[in-house]
Automatic annotation (TrEMBL), chain A:
Descriptive protein name: Peptide/nickel transport system ATP-binding protein
Keyword Cytoplasm attached: no
Domain ABC transporter residues, every copy: 3-253
SMART domains reported in the protein's UniProt record: AAA
Organism per entry: Aquamicrobium aerolatum DSM 21857
An individual GO BP term: peptide transport
One GO CC annotation: plasma membrane
Keywords annotated in UniProt: ATP-binding, Cell membrane, Membrane, Nucleotide-binding, Transport
Domain of life from the UniProt record: Bacteria
Pfam families: ABC_tran, oligo_HPY
InterPro entries: AAA+_ATPase, ABC_Ni/Peptide_Import, ABC_transporter-like_ATP-bd, Oligopep_ABC_C, P-loop_NTPase
From TrEMBL, chain B:
Protein name per the record: Peptide/nickel transport system permease protein
Keyword list, A-Z: Cell membrane, Membrane, Transmembrane, Transmembrane helix, Transport
Domain ABC transmembrane type-1: from-to ranges: 99-288
Xref: InterPro entries: BP-dependent_transpt_permease, MetI-like, MetI-like_sf, OppC_N
TrEMBL record, chain C:
PROSITE patterns: ABC_TRANSPORTER_1 (PS00211), ABC_TRANSPORTER_2 (PS50893)
One term under GO cellular component: plasma membrane
Subcellular location, principal: membrane
Subcellular location per the Swiss-Prot or TrEMBL entry: Cell inner membrane
Protein family: Belongs to the ABC transporter superfamily.
Transmembrane region(s): none
Species whose genome carries this gene: Aquamicrobium aerolatum DSM 21857
Annotated ranges, domain ABC transporter: 6-252
Protein name: Peptide/nickel transport system ATP-binding protein
Pfam annotation, one family: oligo_HPY
Membrane topology, as annotated: Peripheral membrane protein
SMART domains: AAA
Length: 329, 300, 320
C-alpha cells in the first residue's frame, strides 16, 4: 500500500476550547489509485489533507496509530526530512491558485526553484524540465509563460502551473484539496482531465478532496465519505455512489440537483435537515446522530460498528444489514 | 470512551444556534485586559473622587514646610506622606488632582479628534472619487506636520490654558482616526449588506450610522486608546515646556517642569509624577492591545 | 398580450478600466445588447461563467448601476420614472455570500424588518408580526429572531436574506448565485424553500447561477450568457434536451452528476478563456468553439428566433 493511515486524529485550538476536526480515520491508497475524500464544509477533509502533508496550522495536534508513505513513517520524521520529502515524494495542490503562488516571482523562478532544491539539477536542466512540465499540462508557449508573473494568468492557467509544479519531481503521491472549486465549470473539466492523465501516466497515488459528488463520479476509484471528523462509509466508487448504504451518504446523494427532464420548479429535492455539528469533546457515538432520519435508541448509547455490506463498502452504522441494503436508484 | 448516553442528543428539527461567546466572557479571562482595566479604573476613580481622597488642599502653600521628602526618607513629615514641593504644597494631593487634569485632557482631546477623524474618514471611504482624493490630501498634509511644533506655536500664539491644550490636541490628533475609518469604511462598503441596504432604499444616515459605523468600531476603539495615551504624553510635554496647563493647576507634566530645578537634591519630585504618567500611559496602551486581541477574529 | 413584469431592452454597459496612472482608460464591454423579459411569477434562469456579465446585469436590474444604454421597464413603465421607494419595494435582492450580506451588528429581527423600517410600512407591532410570520415561512427557529447573524449557519443566514427580500412583498426577487456558497444538502433546503415561496407569494425570480443543473431544476425559462452577450434563450426543458448553441452544449456537458461513470469528458474547448478587454472578431465564442467554421471568425451572429417563437440563439450554424 502506498499510503497507509490508521487512527488519525487532529484537534485544533478554537476560542479557548479544542475542536476535534478529525476523529480517528483510516485510509489506504494504492499506487495509481484515486481516493476521493468527500464531505461538506466542516467535516475535516481539509485538515486530513494537511495532516497527511504534516502541514497543520500552528497549535494543531496530530495523533495517529500509523501514518506511512511506502516504508517511511511520516509521523516519526523530523521537520528537516519532511521538507525534503514534500514536493519530491508527496505533493499537494490547493483550492486557491492565486494564493498558492508567490506573486513577486515569475512562474519560471518558482518551478525551477522546486526542481533544483530537490534534485540539485543545473539551472539549464531545471529550465528544460519546467518547459516540459508546462507543456504536459497543456500550456502553449511554455517558454514564454515562464517569464510571466502569476497575476498575468487566468485562474485555470494558474491551476495548471500549480499542477506542473506539484509534478516537477515525479511524486509518488499527490494530494488535491478542492483543486477545481474556485474555477469555472468548463475549466474544471479541463483541469480534471489533466490531473487524471498525469496520474495514469505516472501510476501516482492520489487523495482527491472535494464536496462535489459529480466530480467524485468522474475521478474516483474509491470513495471515503466524511462527516464531522469521521469516515462514515468507504468503498468502490460504483458501490458508494450507486448503492449508498449510510443514511448520510444516501441523503447527500439525493440532495444533488440533476437533470431529469421534468418540468422545472415542480420537483422537490431531498435535503438533510439541520447543520453539521462541531465536536469539542470526545464522543464516540455516530456523528450523524442529530440529523439521522433512521435514528434508533441504540445510536444514542453505543458507538456504531464498522461492517461490510453486501455491495462491498464498509459502513459505520447501527442499522441492521438488511436495512442498510440500498435501494438501487 | 466517555459515557456517551449522558450527553443529550439534539433533535434534527430543533436547529441549533451557534452559542454566542460574548465579549465580556472572553474579556474576563484575558489577563492583560484585566490588569490594564484595573489600572485605568483606579486612576479614573482617583480623578473623580480627588476632593475626598486628597489629604490636603493641593493649592495651599506653606513656606515653612518646603521640600519635605516622602515617607521613605529620614527627614519626612508625617502629615505629608509624599512630601511637599518648593512652595510647601502637599505632593500627594497634587498628584491626585493631577489625575483629573490628565484624564480630562485625554478624554476631551480624544473625543474631539475622533469626531473630526471619523467624520472625514466615513465621508472619504463612502463616497470615494474626488471627495476621497481631497480628504486624503488633507490627511497627508496633516501627517506631514510636526505635531509638537505646531502645538507649541499655536499655544504660544493664543496663550496657554487647559481648554486651549484640549482643543489644540483635538485638532491635531485626528489623523489616525481618519486613516483607519477611511480604510475600514471602504472594506465594509464592499460587503453585500451595504449593497442590500442601498437596494432597499435606505437613507444615507442609516447606511453610515447603522450599516457601517457599528461594524468598524473595533479598530476605532484601538485607535482611541493610542490617541489617548498620546494626548496624555503630549500634554505633559507641553506643560513641561511651559506652554501647556498653567500654574497653579496640578498637572503631572507641570509638576515635572517645576521639579527640574531641584532635580538633583529632591529626585523624588521628578520620579513621582513621572511614574504616574508612565502608569497611565501603560494602562491605556495595554488596554488597546487587549481590545485588539479581543475584537480580532470572528467573522464580520 | 399581457405586459411582462419586467422587460430589459438592448442593455449595453461599458466599464472603463485604467491600467496605470497615465494610460488612457480602456473600455470593457460588460453587456452587449442584452434583452430579457420576466413574466409574473416566473423564474428566469441566467447561466454563464465568470466574466459573462450576469452580475452586471443583476446590478443594473437592482438599480445599483445605470446602463450605458438601453431601458429597463417595470410593469410597463420605465424604471427611471419610478420613485426610489416604489422601485425598492418591487425588486429585492438575495446575494451569494450569506456571510457578507447580513450586517453582523443587527439582530435577525431587525435585519428582516429593514425594508419595512426604511419605508415606514405599518406600525411597530404590525412589523413585528409580519417579521415573525416571514421567519416562520422561511423555516427559521423562533429563538433565531433575537440572535445575531454570527450565531447562524450559512443556510440559516441565507434564510434570513430570503425573508428580508420577501417581507415587503416585492414582485421580483433577483437571486445572484444564492446557493453556490452553501453545502449541497443545505442548497437543497434553500432551493426547495425558494420554490415554495414562489408558489405561495407568486413572486417572479431572476435566478443567476453558474451551475446548469440548478438552473434546470429551478427555471421555467433560461438565458445562456457568454462575454456579455446572450447566446441562447428559451424554455429550460427544450434547451436542455437539445441545445442549439455549441457553448450551451459545452456547459451542459461540463455539469457532472453523481450518477455519471468514471472518466472526465473532453469538452472539445480550444484555447483559453478570452480576455474581455480584447473581444474576438465575428462570433465571440469562435476561438474556443469545438465546431467553429471559417465564417465564424468573420461574421457576427445575432440572436435570432429558431424552432419556434419561444427560442432564440446566436449561432451561424446551430446544433440540432
Amino acid at each position: 500500500m502506498l499510503l497507509q493511515v490508521r487512527g488519525l486524529h487532529v484537534n485544533l485550538p478554537d476560542q479557548g476550547e479544542r475542536l476535534h476536526a478529525v476523529r480517528g480515520i483510516d485510509l489506504d491508497v494504492a499506487e495509481g489509485e484515486t481516493l476521493c475524500l468527500v464531505g461538506e464544509s466542516g467535516c475535516g477533509k481539509s485538515m486530513t489533507a494537511l495532516a497527511l502533508m504534516q502541514l497543520l496550522p500552528r497549535g494543531a495536534q496530530l495523533r495517529s496509530d500509523r501514518l506511512h508513505l511506502g516504508e517511511t513513517d511520516l509521523s516519526a520524521l523530523p521537520e528537516r526530512k519532511l521538507s525534503q520529502l514534500r514536493g519530491r515524494r508527496m505533493s499537494m495542490i490547493f483550492q486557491e491558485p492565486m494564493t498558492a503562488l508567490n506573486p513577486v516571482f515569475t512562474i519560471g523562478d518558482q518551478l525551477r526553484t522546486v526542481y533544483r532544491r530537490h534534485t540539485g539539477a543545473s539551472a539549464r536542466e531545471a529550465q528544460a524540465r519546467a518547459i516540459e512540465m508546462l507543456e504536459s499540462v497543456g500550456l502553449t508557449n511554455a517558454s514564454l509563460r515562464l517569464g510571466q508573473y502569476p497575476h498575468q494568468l487566468s485562474g485555470g492557467l494558474r491551476q495548471r502551473v500549480l499542477i506542473a509544479m506539484a509534478l516537477m519531481c515525479e511524486p509518488e503521491m499527490l494530494i488535491c484539496d478542492e483543486p477545481t472549486t474556485a474555477l469555472d465549470v468548463t475549466t474544471q473539466a479541463q483541469i480534471l482531465r489533466i490531473l487524471k492523465d498525469a496520474q495514469t501516466a505516472r501510476k501516482m497515488g492520489m487523495v482527491f478532496i472535494t464536496h462535489d459528488l459529480g466530480v467524485v463520479a468522474r475521478v474516483a476509484d474509491r470513495v471515503a465519505v466524511m462527516y464531522a471528523g469521521r469516515i462514515v462509509e468507504q468503498g468502490d466508487r460504483a458501490s458508494v455512489l450507486r448503492t449508498p448504504a449510510h443514511p448520510y451518504t444516501k441523503g447527500l446523494i439525493a440532495s444533488v440537483p440533476r437533470p431529469e427532464g421534468a418540468q422545472p420548479g415542480t420537483r422537490r429535492l431531498a435535503s438533510i435537515p439541520g447543520n453539521v455539528p462541531a465536536f469539542h469533546r470526545e464522543d464516540a457515538r455516530c456523528p450523524f446522530l442529530s440529523r439521522c432520519p433512521a435514528r434508533m435508541d441504540v445510536c444514542g448509547a453505543v458507538p456504531p460498528p464498522l461492517r461490510q455490506v453486501p455491495t462491498g463498502q464498509v459502513v459505520s452504522c447501527h442499522l441492521s444489514l438488511d436495512l442498510l441494503e440500498p435501494v438501487p436508484a | 470512551m466517555t459515557t456517551a448516553a449522558t450527553i443529550p442528543v439534539p433533535l434534527p428539527d430543533e436547529e441549533q444556534l451557534i452559542p454566542r461567546r460574548g465579549f465580556w466572557r472572553r474579556a474576563l479571562s484575558h489577563r492583560t485586559f484585566l490588569f490594564s482595566a484595573a489600572i485605568l479604573l483606579i486612576i479614573t476613580l482617583i480623578a473623580i473622587f480627588a476632593p475626598m481622597l486628597a489629604p490636603h488642599d493641593p493649592y495651599l502653600q506653606n513656606i515653612a514646610m518646603r521640600l519635605k521628602p516622602p515617607f521613605w526618607h529620614d527627614k519626612t513629615v508625617a502629615e505629608h506622606m509624599l512630601g511637599t514641593d518648593q512652595l510647601g504644597r502637599d505632593y500627594l494631593s497634587r498628584l491626585i488632582y493631577g489625575a483629573r487634569i490628565s484624564m480630562t485632557i485625554a478624554i476631551g482631546a480624544t473625543l474631539m479628534s475622533a469626531l473630526i477623524g471619523i467624520t472625514l474618514g466615513l465621508i472619504a471611504g463612502y463616497y470615494g472619487g474626488w471627495i476621497d482624493t481631497a480628504i486624503s490630501t488633507v490627511i497627508t498634509t496633516r501627517l506631514s506636520m510636526p505635531i509638537i511644533l505646531i502645538a507649541l506655536a499655536v499655544v504660544a500664539l493664543i496663550g496657554p490654558s487647559l481648554t486651549v491644550v484640549i482643543v489644540v490636541l483635538g485638532l491635531l490628533l485626528w489623523d489616525q482616526f481618519a486613516v483607519v475609518t477611511r480604510v475600514a469604511t471602504q472594506q465594509v462598503c464592499a460587503r453585500d449588506y451595504v449593497t442590500a441596504a442601498r437596494v432597499i432604499g435606505s437613507s444615507l444616515p442609516h447606511i453610515l450610522f447603522r450599516e457601517i459605523l457599528p461594524n468598524i468600531r473595533a479598530p476605532l476603539i484601538v485607535v482611541a486608546t493610542v490617541e489617548m495615551a498620546q494626548a496624555v504624553l503630549l500634554e505633559a510635554a507641553l506643560s513641561f515646556l511651559g506652554l501647556g496647563v498653567q500654574a497653579p493647576l496640578p498637572s503631572w507634566g507641570l509638576m515635572l517642569s517645576e521639579a527640574k530645578t531641584s532635580m538633583f537634591f529632591s529626585p523624588w519630585m521628578i520620579v513621582l509624577p513621572g511614574s504616574c504618567l508612565f502608569i497611565l500611559a501603560l494602562g491605556i496602551n495595554l488596554i488597546g492591545d487587549a481590545l485588539r486581541d479581543l475584537t480580532a477574529g470572528g467573522r464580520g | 398580450m399581457t405586459t411582462p413584469l419586467l422587460e430589459a431592452r438592448d442593455l449595453n454597459h461599458v466599464y472603463f478600466l485604467r491600467h496605470g496612472f497615465l494610460k488612457q482608460p480602456a473600455p470593457l464591454r460588460a453587456l452587449n445588447g442584452v434583452s430579457l423579459t420576466i413574466n409574473e411569477g416566473e423564474i428566469l434562469g441566467i447561466v454563464g461563467e465568470s466574466g459573462c456579465g450576469k452580475s452586471t446585469l443583476a446590478r443594473i436590474l437592482l438599480g445599483l448601476e445605470t446602463p450605458t444604454s438601453g431601458d429597463v421597464i417595470l410593469e410597463g413603465r420605465p424604471v427611471s420614472s419610478y420613485p426610489q421607494r416604489e422601485r425598492a419595494l418591487a425588486v429585492q435582492p438575495v446575494f451569494q455570500d450569506p456571510y457578507g450580506s447580513l450586517n453582523p451588528s443587527m439582530s435577525v429581527e431587525d435585519l428582516i424588518a429593514l425594508p419595512l423600517h426604511v419605508h415606514k410600512i405599518g406600525s411597530r407591532q404590525e412589523r413585528q408580526q409580519k417579521v415573525a410570520r416571514m421567519a416562520e415561512q422561511v423555516g427559521l427557529p423562533r429563538r433565531a429572531l433575537s440572535a445575531s447573524p454570527n450565531q447562524l449557519s450559512g443556510g440559516q443566514r441565507q434564510r434570513v436574506a430570503i425573508a428580508r427580500a420577501l417581507v415587503s412583498g416585492p414582485r421580483l426577487v433577483i437571486c445572484d448565485e444564492p446557493t453556490s456558497a452553501l453545502d449541497v444538502s443545505v442548497q437543497a433546503q434553500i432551493l426547495n424553500l425558494l420554490l415554495d415561496l414562489r408558489a405561495e407569494h407568486r413572486v417572479a425570480m431572476l435566478f443567476i447561477s453558474h451551475n446548469l443543473s440548478v438552473i434546470e431544476h429551478m427555471a421555467d425559462r433560461m438565458m445562456v450568457m457568454y462575454l456579455g452577450r446572450v447566446v441562447e434563450a428559451g424554455s429550460t426543458q427544450q434547451i436542455f434536451a437539445a441545445p442549439a448553441h455549441p457553448y450551451t452544449a459545452v456547459l451542459r456537458d461540463s455539469v457532472f452528476s453523481p450518477d455519471d461513470d468514471g472518466g472526465v469528458p473532453d469538452l472539445g474547448l480550444r484555447g483559453n478563456f478570452p480576455n474581455a478587454m480584447n473581444m474576438p472578431s465575428g462570433c465571440v465564442f469562435h476561438p474556443r468553439c469545438p465546431v467553429a467554421r471559417p465564417e465564424c471568425a468573420t461574421t457576427e451572429p445575432f440572436l435570432t428566433q429558431a424552432h419556434d417563437a419561444s427560442r432564440q440563439n446566436a449561432c451561424l450554424f446551430p446544433l440540432n
